[in-house]
Write a structure and sequence with these properties.
The complex is a heterodimer of chains A (182) and B (595).
Chain A (H helix, E strand, L loop, with lengths): L6 H14 L14 H9 L3 H4 L23 H10 L24 H4 L13 H14 L8 H8 L28
Chain B lengths: L11 H17 L10 H5 L35 E7 L19 E3 L2 E5 L5 E5 L6 E6 L5 H5 L12 E3 L2 E5 L4 E6 L5 E6 L14 E3 L2 E5 L10 E6 L5 E6 L31 E3 L4 E5 L21 E6 L5 E6 L15 E6 L5 E8 L4 E6 L5 E6 L41 E4 L13 E3 L4 E8 L2 E5 L16 E4 L5 E8 L4 E8 L8 E2 L3 E5 L4 E6 L5 E6 L9 E5 L2 E8 L5 H5 L14 E6 L1
Antiparallel strand pairs in B: 1-35, 2-3, 3-4, 4-5, 6-7, 7-8, 8-9, 10-11, 11-12, 12-13, 14-15, 15-16, 16-17, 18-19, 19-20, 20-21, 22-25, 23-24, 24-27, 25-26, 27-28, 29-30, 30-31, 31-32, 33-34, 34-35
The chains are: A mainly alpha (182), B mainly beta (595).
């Protein structure tokens, strides 16, 4: 049986959500219920391949999925985070995936060399649901990343969002101020 | 007094004289003032046999020390003298942790090391122990820099000039720190992370300038080498490694997409310097997009080249390109080791030696940039049948073609979108430095014996965005990767020996008169016989070694030092090729060994 197809599991998730929603660390003043999911997105290093904006992209790590352009449903996102994606770099984040519970109907022996890597941290069912809800609310279907979204993600303590400020797109071969041009 | 214990290692009269000198020094100068590093001292660094003043030991980048208290007969007794925990392990950007790739600098018993985020540590290494005197934390912008560092949170070390410690940060700054107080004297922004530029290399000091290289060819940068005047703090020159239209070499970018503006050509490994000709010799990295060479037809100068620059003006004197219109990501960022040998016909040769990502070792005449000899130093090369004996270019290279296929069946391109290449895109040899023993005329290469798989994605201008990957595809690791230390006899240009290792060499080499020191990412620091490459000593540090060893002496006693903390590109992008390394934990340690 797969992780998702047991009613008991679904019920467990519901119970967990109800009982932990106030112990989840969300401040009473927070008006965005997906703040917790954003914290998971950072803690589990989703940023490491999908980038802060979720657009992913190619490079040394292969092509991480664009979560902005994806058509995956909530259930599919949850399954992918829990089980990873065989034969890709997408890790699994549930302890015991492919062992104590099957993934995509497979055990570790079934998936063989296509076994996805283990995520840097293990996530509980409510964390996985939270990060899926964060992606659905703030990433999936959004256009190009912009300055507001960046500041919402990082805050103001870093220059990481400068590149998205209107009017500061530098031509690729210009020289930043303070150095002589050649 | 305590210091007199140290002189027991010196025989007889030397011991008495040394004792007198030490006592005098302590009596007259109880609080030691910082030494001043001048160009005179940097030019004559080999006279300071106990010091390691340059990143690569000397301007020729030989990483050879004449110290031989530790030698092939007693190295089996080498043991840990002291260790120190450092910081900088936290992650940032796309990186879950930092690592240590730095070369320590040692001057008169004072050691300077950096951690991955660019903190500089000054450590008093006298008295057989390490005492941290100060730590300068540059407060690197983790998110800003870490998002566009392709290959790890790393900093390869400092340089010394005057009474300052000169360092870089990942977020693109050049920093001058007061050697005595550890306070930042001044800093300037040299690289721009808004353009995808970061800095990982150590500065090179030439005359009164700090020379800086940049990383980011995977992010669509236009590479450069810059010189900052350390007195005025102003930039003296900046030489772009990708020529502009109309400039010499500009005609080797034949596309209609302004590919040169994002053509790569990064310069993130510290170069070498030839004082006799006042020439800086620096390696240039891959073109971008890395694996879609059809996007950028033409030879793509000066990517994948060794460049010689006039130190005062930065003007290019000569270049030698190894892999024109490169479809493999075979950078030539490597250090060029400057060696003088007598050639086969008794002719004296002034060489620049470069062990390239493409799996070939090259000897170039460093006065003219002319190819002298080249040969494969890896076990397996499939991308080319070999080098033309005259020009040194791959035999399949056709200057009449704008897009090179080399061995087309195994080359990645738009009509062959999945290709297995040997060596893998990581090399051959990556940034870890070689070492050269001028007595034995042996050049030791830290080898990655590899193949990997490239999947090509066709690039279009719309995909080029600031701070996003611009690679035209990416690598995957279906094949096991191992390593070796491979020695080349520089007078004959032939392989002299190869010691195969279970894992790739990710740290680099130190050479002494009869020994070679290196490390493995599985934890071992090893000493090999310099002639036979037989292993004579090994110590497992319990962490992943991916930094070069150095040797130095303090008060007559010789030490070997190495930073240990797995990081860089390997454990994020390439770990599938070495699954046993998945259990190596991040860390940040300095190990110092002695007899």
């Amino acid at each position: 049986m797969t992780i998702l197809q047991t009613r008991a599991f679904a019920a467990a998730i519901a119970l967990t959500l109800m009982s932990t929603s106030f112990a989840f660390g969300q401040s009473a003043a927070s008006s965005d219920p997906t703040e917790g999911g954003k914290a998971v997105f950072k803690r589990a290093n989703c940023v490491g391949c999908h980038k802060w904006h979720g657009n992913g992209g190619g490079g040394y790590g292969g092509d991480a999925l664009s979560l902005r352009k994806t058509e995956l449903t909530r259930d599919q996102i949850i399954e992918t985070v829990a089980c990873g994606r065989p034969s890709t770099g997408m890790p699994f984040f549930v302890r015991g995936a492919y062992e104590s519970s099957k993934c995509f109907g497979m055990t570790r022996a079934d998936v063989g060399p296509g076994m996805p890597p283990e995520g840097g941290t293990f996530l509980r069912p409510n964390d996985i649901e939270a990060v899926a809800d964060y992606v659905l609310a703030h990433v999936k279907g959004k256009g190009e990343p912009n300055h507001d979204e960046c500041v919402n993600f990082f805050g103001n303590a870093s220059r990481v969002c400068d590149v998205y400020k209107a009017g500061t797109q530098l031509p690729a071969n210009s020289i930043s101020s303070g150095s002589p041009s050649k | 007094m305590k210091m007199t214990n140290k002189v027991s290692y010196l025989p007889g009269r030397a011991a008495l004289l040394a004792t007198a000198a030490v006592i005098t020094a302590f009596t007259l100068f109880p609080a030691r003032a910082a030494d001043t590093v001048t160009q005179e001292r940097l030019l004559n660094s080999e006279k300071e046999t106990g010091n390691w003043l340059h990143h690569h030991k000397n301007y020729s980048a030989t990483r050879f020390s004449s110290l031989q208290e530790i030698n092939k007969d007693n190295v089996k007794n080498l043991k840990v003298a002291w260790t120190m925990h450092l910081g900088g392990v936290e992650g940032g950007g796309i990186w879950s942790h930092g690592g240590l790739e730095g070369t320590p600098i040692v001057e008169n018993g004072m050691m300077y090391v950096t951690d991955g985020w660019g903190s500089v540590y000054k450590i008093d290494a006298r008295g057989g122990k390490g005492t941290l005197l100060w730590k300068m934390d540059p407060k690197t912008d983790h998110d800003w820099a870490g998002a566009v560092a392709c290959c790890g949170v790393d900093n390869r070390g400092v340089a010394l000039w005057g009474d300052l410690v000169i360092s870089h940060t990942l977020d693109g700054r050049l920093i001058a720190t007061n050697k005595e107080t550890g306070q930042v004297a001044w800093q300037r922004q040299v690289a721009d992370p808004d353009k995808g530029e970061v800095i990982t290399g150590a500065p090179l000091i030439v005359k009164n300038m700090a020379i800086t290289g940049v990383a980011g060819a995977e992010y669509g940068i236009r590479g450069w080498i810059a010189a900052t005047d350390l007195t005025s703090q102003k930039e003296v020159w900046r030489t772009f490694t990708i020529p502009g239209k109309g400039e010499p070499g500009g005609e080797t970018w034949k596309d209609d997409n302004k590919a040169a503006a994002s053509g790569g050509g990064s310069t993130w490994v510290t170069g070498s310097y030839d004082p006799a000709t006042d020439t800086i010799i620096w390696g240039v990295g891959n073109p971008g997009p890395d694996w879609d060479n059809q996007y950028r037809p033409g030879d793509n100068l000066y990517t994948d080249s060794s460049l010689a620059l006039d130190s005062s003006t930065g003007k290019i004197k000569w270049h030698y390109q190894h892999t024109p219109n490169d479809p493999f990501d075979y950078d030539s960022v490597s250090e060029n080791v400057l060696a003088d040998v007598t050639g086969p016909n008794g002719v004296p040769l002034k060489l620049a030696l470069e062990a390239d990502r493409n799996g070939f070792a090259y000897a170039i005449d460093r006065s003219t940039g002319k190819f002298i000899w080249g040969l494969p130093f890896v076990k397996k090369v499939t991308w080319t049948k070999g080098l033309d004996p005259e020009s040194g270019k791959p035999v399949e290279y056709d200057p009449k073609k704008t897009v090179q296929r080399y061995n087309a069946a195994v080359s990645p391109h738009r009509e062959n979108k999945v290709a297995d290449i040997c060596p893998g895109n990581m090399g051959g040899k990556n940034w870890p430095p070689t070492a050269y023993n001028p007595d034995l005329k042996l050049w030791y290469i830290p080898v990655i014996e590899s193949c990997n798989r490239i999947t090509v994605e066709e690039s279009v201008p719309e995909k080029l965005k600031p701070r996003e990957f611009w690679t035209g595809g990416g690598p995957s690791q279906p094949f096991k990767i191992t390593g070796s230390v491979t020695a080349i006899d520089v007078t004959s240009g032939k392989i002299a020996g190869k010691l195969e290792t279970p894992f790739p060499n990710l740290g680099g080499i130190l050479a002494t008169p009869d020994l070679v020191f290196t490390g493995q990412p599985s934890g071992e620091v090893t000493a090999l016989d310099g002639k036979s490459l037989q292993k004579l000593w090994e110590f497992n540090t319990g962490g992943g070694v991916n930094a070069p060893p150095i040797t130095f002496s303090v008060d007559g006693k010789q030490y070997v030092a190495i930073l240990v903390g797995l990081g860089g590109a390997w454990d994020k992008w390439f770990i599938d090729s070495t699954p046993e390394l998945k259990n190596i934990q991040p860390g940040s340690m300095l190990y110092v060994f002695s007899l």
